[in-house]
Amino acid sequence: MNDNHGQLSAVLDQTLEVVDRVSRARRADLKLEEYGEVIYVGHGVARVKGLPGVGSEEIVRFPNDLLGMALNLDPDEVGVILLDEGPGLAAGAQARRTHRVLDVPVGEALLGRVVDAVGRPLDNAGQVRTTERAPIEAPAPAIIDRSPVTVPLATGIKVVDALIPIGRGQRELILGDRQTGKTGIVVDCMINQKDKDVICIYCAIGQRSSSVAKVIADLRDHGATPYCIVVFAPGDAPPGQLFIAPYAAMAMGEYFMHQGRDALVIFDDLSQHARAYRELSLLLRRPPGRESFPGDIFYIHSRLLERSTHLRPELGGGSLTALPIIETEEQNLAAYIPTNLISITDGQIYLTPRLFQQGVLPPVDVGTSVSRVGGKTQLPAYRAVAGDLKLSYSQFEELEVFSRFGTRLDEHTRQLLARGRAVREALKQPLYDPLPAAEQIAILLAAASGLFDDLPAETIVKASAKIREMLPAEMPRIYDLVESGEMLGDADRQELIGIAGKAVGVEWKPSKP
Predict the structure, then answer these.
(1) Rounded to the nearest 5°, which phi and psi values hold at 79?
(2) 35-104 maps to which CATH number?
(3) Of 145, 246, 277, 453, which is the most exposed, with the fewest CB atoms less than 10 Å away?
(4) Domain map (residue ranges) of the chain
(5) Active-site residue, selected from the candidate residues 21, 220, 354, 372
(6) Which positions ≥6 away from 401 have C-beta within 8 Å?
(7) What is the rounded distance in angstroms from the CA atom of residue 373 to the CA atom of residue 376?
């Protein structure tokens, strides 16, 4: 009897062990899902009841794989901004947590691609095949992790590189009224990064598809697409995409910065970004402030742009440069959003319609534009040319205004006006024709030395082209001298001016007004 009882007990123990093992295996296959119910759908937002454990900026999935991002975490409901629009999203639909903060693909696989704000391809070139992803939001590098901005980011544009230099790791605002050439400046800058090992990320926010297609075509025609990424949130996309697009672009750029490389991120433009955030905030019933913008409108731009920097050598020494674009109305620089961004960035390049209408392209207002990093990021060879050029040019612009009220000018004033007009003509530059630093210096040195003073305005551009043609043959070593960071000696400057004079057909006399 005892033997039978022992055998029965052993069999029971084995059975319980098998049942426990099967139960554990089944529990391992189970996933804890958290669902909520959509109680309201508006333009670009949804309110969800339930989801008590959802986190800020967590992805919320709706029927038909439509995506949203949790933004408002209220006691009774969750405010979700929609990243997709489509059928199946209505009151009563199911909303599911993903336990994943919104992230985007990053890495080399994105180079040459056009993607949306979530990282999905828009160029019909297949899926983006990368195993690495990064959250769109990340803390800005600590002050102790940053190095001074000292390496120039050459744009190839004379008026910028000589008078308003930009450094790698800087935040330089580009602002101006509509149709003044803001996008043209950044496209020139991207084209000029060819063979300079700088990754360029162009983030188009709320732009027309035709405008972005033209930018992509121009980059392709100039061989710039292999090192460029285009992030596009069109104007007809949900406002949630317009809101997250710049953060997604910044995350893609940060990947290369942390790899020890140099990256450039362009936001075109943050006016549309601010309006999209205002729309979302009003729909989510956040308290409006000045011009109906929410109170944290400054914070959303500062936390974005503060992520650009130049890292210390111990952290790889990579850099992330930001060129945000903002649109002004009737040249009003004191408007709410422009003043916010001017205070966040390290300087601004202002494009004025006045110069645009006069045919001065790019229409950069030298007197209003400024780079707070300044000559620290400029090649030393520029300092011999551009040291006093900005001051004298600004003085010329003021003097030109006053000269219109009088007809009798002394000889010295006439010389100053002639020199200023010659410099202004020399600073003109067509689109998509960035110049190497050595050619810029030769042209500006010729203008600053007075070689162009007696030339008609329409021939100065032709004279500049002749200088560019002669320089490689006459002084090939000047290219290496400039790019290696050497100063131009007096002999080099005299030789450069002599070559420029030969190209222009003007005998140079060392005299200044």
Answers:
(1) -90, 120
(2) 2.40.30.20
(3) 145
(4) 35-104, 105-126+160-378, 383-504
(5) 372
(6) none
(7) 6
**Using CA of residue 159, residue 162, residue 168, residue 173, what is the dihedral sign?**
negative
Condensed to tens digits (0 to 9), the pLDDT of residues 428-441 reads 999 999 999 989 99
pTM above 0.70, yes or no: yes
Tokens in use for 241?
A: 């995409």
**Region of residue 64 (phi > 0: left; psi between -120 and 50: alpha; otherwise: beta):** left
CB atoms within 10 A of CB 428: 18
| Reported confidence tier of residue 417, pLDDT bands at 50, 70, 90 | confident
Q: Determine the pLDDT at residue 398.
A: 79
Count of residues in the chain: 513
Does the domain at residues 105-126+160-378 carry the CATH identifier 3.40.50.300?
Answer: yes
Integer CA distances (angstroms), 353 to 325, 336, 356, 364, 475, in order:
16, 20, 5, 9, 38
Residues 285-327 pLDDT 10s: 999 999 999 999 999 999 999 999 999 999 999 999 999 999 9
Task: Give CATH for domain 383-504.
Answer: 1.20.150.20
- Residue 372 known to be catalytic: yes
Percent helix / strand / coil, the chain, rounded to 5: 45, 20, 35
